[in-house]
Design brief:
Strand 7 and strand 8 form a beta hairpin. This protein is an alpha+beta fold. 34% of the residues lie in helices and 21% in strands.
Length: 386
């Protein structure tokens, strides 16, 4: 069994025991104890064998004088990239141990050293991928916007007005269409989440600790990113779709404060979205608005305007995205690919020991900015406040 699979099974056993607690029978506890002992011994054997292999290769490289390249052992991890010093299992375990102030074995020390001395700062490739994957899962709007990964400030053009092709009269001069490009400038704002855990972090396995830190940091950062994508003011912070336009009769539909949403309101809203953005049009609203305002609505044939397919919701055929950061009784409809965002670099993690509380602090840091490039690509359902 591979080390990664062993650690995953050990983490699953731990979660099972914590979840079931006193409800477990003596027979089940004994069985899990035996399995844990066997897995731990097998893992220790695999690690020892890997270190021995690395030691042999190291001796060959030092003594023979003819070895031009020694290949990193991957311990059965098919996802490790041999040419990526931050993608090896040894570097991953070294980094996760280092931020907990745990001692490294010889193979981990070599992996840390081979990573150009930047090991303490560069998050392992696998961990970084798990964090960004978790962030995109928890902040689904990131999958809908035009997302870049460019370090520092970035300025780029996005299609603005795109005029239709025209019929050409034979031999007549051709005049260029008045197409336009919209320029979007993004900088970077720090999004930081600090979590603190007691000294018991030292007892966690590598896989369990990685899972914990990925979940804690990614969830907090994802919530803030999605909030900014929706509600960012653009003043000393990213600009969200709430501030894509000055909302009025040409780009929004207002429901009276004491009134209820009607199918006619929704139809009017759809009519406000220019047809050029209709192909990628999607609704975004919170779950309460979907179920209390939209679900009861029917068209003239008494058919519900909201349909459900495989746990996905559609309003008049437009997909619905759910976000807790849209206000109650409000919704947006638009082509969210016209919103540009930049996650300037991989989410970083820094650590420190707090002697006063005998605990460890871990800080997740993301550099993020966003802005709607074309305001007319978004229309809004507004609930009046007066």
């Amino acid at each position: 069994m591979r080390i990664k699979e062993i650690e995953a099974r050990l983490a699953a056993i731990k979660q099972d025991i914590e979840a079931r607690g006193e409800s477990m029978t003596a027979e089940e506890i004994n069985a899990l104890e035996q399995e844990t002992t066997q897995l731990t011994e097998e893992r220790a054997g695999l690690i020892a064998a890997a270190e021995k292999r690395n030691g042999i290769l190291d001796n060959i490289a030092k003594g023979a004088g003819i070895v031009s390249r020694s290949f990193q052992q991957n311990n059965g991890d098919d996802n490790a990239a041999p040419d990526d010093p931050f993608g090896t299992p040894e570097y991953r375990s070294a980094w996760l141990k280092n931020i907990r102030r745990l001692p490294l074995n010889d193979a981990e020390k070599r992996a840390f050293s081979n990573a150009s001395g930047a090991g303490a700062e560069v998050i392992p490739t696998q961990t970084a991928n798990e964090i960004i994957s978790k962030v995109k899962t928890l902040a689904p709007m990131l999958n809908e916007v035009t997302l870049l990964h460019v370090k520092g400030a970035v300025k780029f053009a996005i299609e603005g007005t795109n005029n239709a092709a025209a019929i050409h009269t034979e031999n007549a001069s051709i005049t260029a269409a008045a197409d336009t490009l919209t320029t979007v400038s993004l900088s970077g704002y720090e999004i930081v989440k600090l979590v603190q855990i007691s000294d018991t972090v030292m007892t966690m396995s590598i896989t369990a600790f990685e899972s914990w830190i990925v979940n804690m940091l990614a969830e907090a950062i994802a919530r803030k990113v999605e909030d900014l994508l929706i509600n960012g003011t653009g003043s000393s912070q990213p600009k969200g779709i709430e501030n894509a336009n000055t909302w009025g009769a040409t780009n929004s539909v207002t429901v009276a404060k004491t009134g209820a949403l009607t199918a006619a309101n929704v139809q009017t809203l759809i009519g406000l979205l220019p047809s050029g953005y209709d192909r990628n049009g999607k609704f975004v609203m919170n779950k309460k608005t979907l179920f209390t305002d939209f679900m009861p609505l029917q068209d003239n044939s008494k058919n519900h305007i909201v349909t459900v397919q495989n746990n996905a919701y559609f309003v008049y055929g437009y997909p619905v995205l759910l976000s807790d950061y849209v206000a109650d009784h409000e919704a947006f409809l638009g082509d969210f690919k016209k919103v540009c965002a930049n996650l300037a670099e991989n989410i970083g993690v820094k650590s420190a020991y707090d002697i006063d509380t005998n605990s460890y602090k871990y800080s997740g840091i993301a550099i993020f900015d966003c802005a709607p490039a074309i305001g007319e690509a978004i229309v809004k359902l507004v609930k009046a406040t007066a």
